[in-house]
From TrEMBL:
SUPFAM superfamilies cross-referenced by the UniProt entry: RmlC-like cupins
Record-given protein name: Cupin type-1 domain-containing protein
A Pfam family it matches: Cupin_1
InterPro entries, A to Z: Cupin_1 (IPR006045), RmlC-like_jellyroll (IPR014710), RmlC_Cupin_sf (IPR011051), YjiB-like (IPR047121)
Domain Cupin type-1: 64-137
Cited Gene3D superfamilies: Jelly Rolls (2.60.120.10)
Length: 214
C-alpha cells in the first residue's frame, strides 16, 4: 500500500484552495517509474493525464495557483521546500520566502526525488530552498503548456536533468492558468467546481489515491 499524506487546506482571504485535500505520495515515483521521465510519461498517459513540462527550479518563486485545472507535480531530481495554501503578500521574493510577507496558515512540505504531489485547482504553491542550486529554466521544448516535439516521449528521453526538477501534468482536455491571489475572492465556487479527474495519474482507479480521497 502506498504512503499517502493528505492536507486539507481551507480558503484564505486571497487563496480559494479546495474542497479536495492536497495529496503527497512520498517516493512513489521511484517505485512506479524509477524517476525516469519517459516511464512517467507512459504512466501518466495511461491514466489520462497529459505531461506538459519539466522545469528546473531556481532558489524561490512567487506563490501561485491554477483556477482552471488540477495539477500533478512529480519530482525527478534534487530536493526543495514547497509552501502550499497561502499567498505572498509582497512582490519582494526575499521577504515572502525568508520573511513574514505571506499569509498565515498553509503547510510547508519537504520534497525530494520520487515524490508526487496532486494539487487541486485553487491550491497555491511556492517552491523554494532548492538543492542543488541552479537557475530557473524550462527544460522541455515548448512554452510549458505542451511538449513541442513530434515525439514527446523521445524529447523526454533527451532531456538532461540538473538541480531540482519537477514535471507537471494535467488531466487531458484541461488548460491551466496562473493566479497570484485575490482573483477569485468572490468566485471561490467556480474554482471549486473544476471537474474531478477520472483517474489518479499514478495510482489509476485505486482507492488509495484521488479516486478514494477526492
Amino acid at each position: 500500500m502506498p504512503e499517502v499524506r493528505s492536507y486539507p487546506l481551507p480558503p484564505t482571504a486571497l487563496i480559494p484552495n479546495s474542497k479536495y485535500p492536497l495529496l503527497h505520495y512520498p517516493g512513489l515515483l521511484a517505485e512506479k517509474a524509477d524517476c525516469n521521465a519517459a516511464k512517467v510519461y507512459d504512466l501518466f498517459t495511461s491514466n489520462g493525464w497529459e505531461l506538459q513540462w519539466i522545469y528546473r527550479y531556481g532558489p524561490t518563486q512567487a506563490s501561485h495557483y491554477h483556477s482552471t485545472a488540477h495539477e500533478c507535480m512529480a519530482v525527478l531530481s534534487g530536493s526543495a521546500t514547497i509552501r502550499f495554501g497561502v499567498a505572498d503578500t509582497s512582490d519582494n521574493l526575499e521577504a515572502s520566502t525568508h520573511g513574514s510577507a505571506h499569509e498565515d496558515g498553509g503547510v510547508e512540505v519537504q520534497a525530494k526525488a520520487g515524490d508526487v504531489f496532486l494539487i487541486p485547482a485553487g491550491v497555491s504553491h511556492k517552491t523554494h530552498h532548492t538543492s542543488p542550486p541552479a537557475e530557473f529554466k524550462l527544460l522541455t521544448p515548448g512554452n510549458g503548456h505542451h511538449i513541442a516535439a513530434e515525439d514527446p516521449r523521445q524529447a523526454l528521453v533527451e532531456t538532461e536533468l540538473s538541480g531540482f526538477t519537477m514535471m507537471g501534468a494535467y488531466p487531458k482536455g484541461s488548460a491551466w492558468d496562473s493566479c497570484q491571489g485575490g482573483e477569485h475572492s468572490q468566485q471561490m465556487e467556480k474554482v471549486w467546481g473544476v471537474q474531478k479527474p477520472e483517474r489518479d495519474p499514478v495510482l489509476g482507479d485505486g482507492v488509495d489515491g484521488l479516486c478514494g480521497l477526492w
